[in-house]
């Protein structure tokens, strides 16, 4: 659930404090900003080399690394196909865990509900939010 569109022309996906990929489509060619780890930089470089500078025309990455999840999010945002499966700011009301905290944990590698719970404390009290945690995991990993 990284930041929504900033403007109609700027799209971004982010693992807060770690990796950022942003594109400004108003520039010609589109201006791409990538800040982060070597894996993200290498992935973007490889995709650009093979498919050009238009993120909307890039193929969706198939993997589940944080880099692939961020690039996938950016592509879907540019294509207007990004529809995050949970709309509320707070996902776990018992533990007061924000949706963004859960989503960031998933991007960073918590790909099972138990891992998300361990890292965020979401779904460790009444468990009502567990289906929402599972839905976000499925959405991010492309298995929904």
Tally of helical segments: 5
Q: Return the average pLDDT rounded to an integer.
A: 94
* Estimated helix fraction: 25-40%
Radius of gyration: 15 Å
Q: Strand portion, in percent?
A: 15-25%
Explain the layout of strands and helices.
Elements lengths: L9 E6 L3 E6 L6 E5 L2 H14 L14 H13 L11 E3 L4 E2 H9 L5 H8 L9 H12 L3
Antiparallel strand pairs: 1-2, 2-3, 4-5
Describe this structure in words.
- The structure is a single chain.
- The protein has 144 residues and is α+β, with helices and mostly antiparallel strands.
- It has two domains: 69 residues, no CATH class; 52 residues, Arc Repressor Mutant, subunit A (Orthogonal Bundle), CATH 1.10.10.
- Helices cover 39% and strands 15% of the residues.
- It is built from five helices and five strands.
- Helix 1 packs across helix 2 and helix 3 crosses helix 5.
- The two termini are 16 Å apart.
- The relative contact order is 0.14.
Quick summary:
This protein is α+β, with helices and mostly antiparallel strands and 144 residues long. 39% of the residues lie in helices and 15% in strands.
List the defining traits of the structure above.
single chain, 144 residues, alpha+beta, 2 domains, 3-stranded antiparallel beta sheet, disordered N terminus
């Amino acid at each position: 659930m990284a930041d929504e569109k900033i403007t109609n022309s700027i799209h971004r996906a982010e693992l807060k404090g770690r990796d950022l990929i942003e594109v400004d489509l108003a520039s010609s060619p589109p201006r791409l900003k990538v800040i982060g780890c070597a894996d993200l930089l290498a992935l973007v470089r490889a995709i650009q080399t093979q498919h050009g500078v238009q993120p909307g025309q890039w193929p969706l990455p198939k993997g589940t690394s944080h880099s692939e999840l961020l690039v996938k999010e950016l592509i879907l945002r540019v294509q207007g196909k990004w529809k995050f499966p949970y709309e509320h700011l707070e996902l776990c009301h018992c533990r007061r865990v924000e949706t963004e905290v859960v989503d960031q944990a998933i991007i960073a590698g918590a790909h099972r509900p138990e891992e998300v719970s361990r890292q965020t404390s979401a779904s460790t009290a009444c468990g009502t939010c567990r289906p929402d945690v599972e839905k976000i995991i499925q959405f991010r990993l492309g298995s929904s």
